[in-house]
Design brief:
This protein has 4 domains: about 5-175, Rossmann fold; about 180-240, Helicase, Ruva Protein, domain 3 (Orthogonal Bundle); about 245-355, Zinc Finger, Delta Prime, domain 3, CATH 1.20.272; about 370-450, DnaA, N-terminal domain (GMP Synthetase, Chain A, domain 3). It is α/β, with parallel strands linked by helices. The radius of gyration is 31 Å and the shape is globular. The strands form 2 sheets. The chain has a 5-stranded parallel β-sheet, with helices on one face. A 3-stranded mixed β-sheet has the order 6-7-8. The protein is built from 24 helices and 8 strands.
């Protein structure tokens, strides 16, 4: 009988689990030291191995050779757990069995010893879906657990689990898998299954999986039915309406060059090719984030990019200030786009607004003024945290920007002196805000210079002094 990829290649021991080494090491250590807890909470995104790890832990505890970190896979207990047929390992879906009656039944069954295993193990998936009454009933059992019972709770939303439950569990946080980890896993599966697929196609499947190994395996499964030849990146795009980084790079290039006609044309072509507008919105927002991280030097820590892609993004002609404004605008439109009766129009509106955000490099006096005001407001907010007095001076200053040159004009000698004293820290703040190595020019406004010169002449003429 044919088995789908996600079931056929589901890990059966701790060593086969992908990307959760911190969890594996901790669980193995607890088993080796004989310090197995009575309740565990596995929290993390969907499709990263929470339920699979729960089953492996159940095998390890109930294996005839156990408790062991290497279940034999051949004893009655191991084989029954593999086939989800063990009467001593009970799996409960918290989403569909969320009421107090189900938990009362659980409390009743907990009293009885396991039939032929070492432990009776309850795996409750999506435990956060239980009602408050059900949690209250479950709490009674967790407070005084029988010695031969282990609870393993899995959830994608731990914040909804009451603190009274959390405090009685050993918590393990499962992380999203990186695109590289998912790609390696899919490459291994493709090799074992004899699936011909290009490196680029594997990369885009891993990116589209968005941290979920299960999603990546499902996409690969679909593609094996979709094409009889070698699976290419174009096959991935056609099947799941996913657009690659080239599309977003070109789209962003048109946006930054204020070519509204070409922006809307590219968007609608992408939709006609099968991409969902909400998917395009999500892809663009993620690409803007990627570009921001590259521009701020966080490539190696948080991104899975080729050297070619990193260079392309580093060289992209856009300043960090505008990039931040674009991301902010995009995030504010998320609900509007998702809930719109016509998501295409909502996305067209967003892209139009992003395109005219800074019309042309020369710009109009109004757009330039708005941009400079945006810089001043951000500098004011940053400085205010460290020095309210300095922030007050900034609020009264006039700030102009010409590429790397930041020109700050003030209207009195006191403000000039204070800003010049703080020139180093101001330059640091501005470098962070703009993403470039700024040059700073701090001086009196021209009209104040003339007034100052006249005042000096009057003081000399009448042998007087200025009183402020």
């Amino acid at each position: 009988m044919y088995q789908v990829i996600s079931l056929k290649y589901r890990p059966q021991n701790f060593d086969e689990i992908t990307g959760q080494n911190h969890v594996v090491i901790s669980l193995k250590g607890a088993i080796k030291r004989g310090r197995v807890g009575h309740a565990y909470l596995f929290a993390g995104p969907r499709g990263v191995g929470k339920t699979t790890t729960a089953r492996i832990l159940a095998k390890s505890l109930n294996c005839v050779e156990g408790p062991t970190t290497q279940p034999c896979q051949h004893c009655q207990s191991c084989m029954e757990i593999t086939r989800s047929r063990s009467i001593d390992v009970i799996e409960i879906d918290g989403a569909s069995n969320r009421g107090i009656d189900e938990i009362r039944n659980l409390r009743e069954s907990v009293r009885y010893s396991p039939i032929h295993s070492r432990y009776k193990i309850y795996i409750i998936d999506e435990v956060h879906m239980l009602t408050q009454e059900a949690f209250n009933a479950l709490l009674k059992t967790l407070e005084e657990p029988p010695p031969n019972v282990v609870f393993i709770f899995a959830t994608t939303n731990p914040i909804k689990v009451p603190q009274t439950i959390l405090s009685r569990c050993e918590r393990f946080t499962f992380k999203r898998l990186s695109a590289a980890e998912i790609k390696d896993r899919l490459t291994d599966i493709a090799r074992k299954e004899g699936i011909k697929i290009t490196e680029k196609a594997l990369h885009y499947i891993a990116v589209r999986a968005d941290g979920s190994i299960r999603d990546g395996e499902s996409i690969l499964e679909q593609l094996t039915s979709f094409t009889e030849n070698e699976i290419s990146a174009e096959d991935v795009f056609r099947l799941i309406g996913f657009l690659g980084s080239d599309f977003y790079f070109e789209l962003l290039n048109k946006i930054s060059n204020n070519k509204l006609n070409e922006v809307l044309s590219a968007l609608n072509q992408g939709i006609e090719d099968g991409a969902d507008p909400v998917e395009i919105y999500r892809g663009l927002t993620n690409y803007l984030r990627t570009l921001l991280l590259v521009k701020t030097g966080l490539v190696d820590k948080f991104l899975d990019l080729s050297d070619e892609e990193i260079k392309r993004l580093k060289d992209f002609p856009i300043d960090v200030e505008r990039l931040i404004v674009m991301i902010e605008m995009a995030l504010k439109k998320e609900d509007f786009i998702r809930k719109s009766l016509n998501t295409r129009i909502g996305l067209e509106l967003l892209l139009s607004q992003l395109t005219i955000l800074n019309p042309g490099s020369a710009g109009t006096s109004d757009s330039r003024s708005e941009k400079e005001q945006g810089l001043k407001e951000r500098l004011f907010r940053t400085v205010k945290k460290a020095s309210p007095k300095l922030a007050g001076i900034i609020s009264q200053a006039k700030i102009d920007r010409d590429n790397e040159l930041i020109d700050i004009k003030v209207d009195n000698d006191f403000s000039l002196e204070q800003l010049k004293k703080s020139q180093t820290v101001l330059k640091t703040y501005l470098n962070e805000i703009t993403g470039c190595d700024c040059r700073l020019k701090i001086h009196l406004a021209e009209e104040q210079k003339s007034e100052t010169g006249l005042m000096d002449k009057i003081k000399v003429m009448f042998d007087g002094e200025e009183i402020r």
